[in-house]
Amino acid sequence: MRSYSYRVGISLYCMENYKQEFIKLSLDIGALRFGEFKLKSGRVSPFFFNMGIFSSGRLIKKVGDFYASALVDSGLDCDIIFGPAYKGIPLASVMSASLFMNHDKDVPFVYNRKEKKDHGEGGRIVGPPLSGKIVIVDDVITAGTAIKEASQIIRETGAEISGIIIAIDRQEKGAGEYSAVQEASSKLGVPVISIVNLDQILAFVKNSSSELEDHVEAIESYRKEYGA
């Protein structure tokens, strides 16, 4: 299976500052937690990430900065940012704002409605017409339902998907031998970029306080069993 998912070395010193800042902030506010968490799959994971914790003006602004940095760092061509309803909507908007404020890139954003509107301007899309190269932004890819729906909408217009950006790549097997991220990348034929992946989280943990280091063994054990 062809996959475009990016994997990097686990040296903390090779990790970009925005990635380290994202992990640290996620830990500080409790968006990234370690312990025992039962997942929908039935697995008991040693870590859990909840993007919903980034729910203040300061925090969502930082999220936009992290996504914008990941896009610029990736080198992906991007004419429009697409945020799948519902979680992708605020992510696309703050990412667009950060690209303008911090990178001098005025990139429009678009999002879809869950149900087609039959009055007013009508349709399922809010924002400018889709054209050129589109980057889809979401928090994570699990079942990939939102990404699949977004890709169908984009390709029906004749626009091109140049890539997908998510917050965290768990680098974990799905039902088969490949992760949801690898599956999405292969099926759509585009790169999936993450702000951070589990390799990088583990590198951060190993180089942090002794309290965090206590979780290293559990994470590595989980990866041996479920790592993609």
SSE topology:
Layout: H1 17-29, E1 32-38, E2 44-49, H2 57-74, E3 80-83, H3 88-103, E4 109-117, E5 123-126, E6 133-137, H4 145-156, E7 160-169, H5 180-188, E8 192-197, H6 198-206, H7 210-213, H8 216-226
- Give the rounded overall mean pLDDT: 88
CA-based gyration radius: 18 Å
Q: Helix content range of the residues, please?
A: 40-55%
Count helical runs: 8
- Please identify the structural class as seen in this structure: alpha/beta
Widest β-sheet, arrangement of strands: 5-4-3-6-7-8
| Low-confidence region ranges | 1-10
H/E element string?
HEEHEHEEEHEHEHHH
Q: Biggest sheet, in brief?
A: 6 strands, mixed
**How much strand?**
15-25%
- In whole angstroms, how far apart are the ends? 12 Å
- Can you tell me the overall shape? globular
Number of strands: 8
Task: Describe this entry's structure for a reader.
By secondary structure, this protein is α/β, with parallel strands linked by helices. The chain has 8 helices and 8 strands, in the order αββαβαβββαβαβααα. A 6-stranded mixed beta sheet has the order 5-4-3-6-7-8, sandwiched between helices. Strands 1-2 form a two-stranded antiparallel sheet. It is globular, with a radius of gyration of 18 Å.
Which properties best describe this structure?
single chain; 228 residues; alpha/beta; 6-stranded mixed beta sheet
Produce a short descriptive summary.
The protein has 228 residues and is α/β, with parallel strands linked by helices. The protein has helices at residues 17-29, 57-74, 88-103, 145-156, 180-188, 198-206, 210-213, 216-226; strands at 32-38, 44-49, 80-83, 109-117, 123-126, 133-137, 160-169, 192-197.
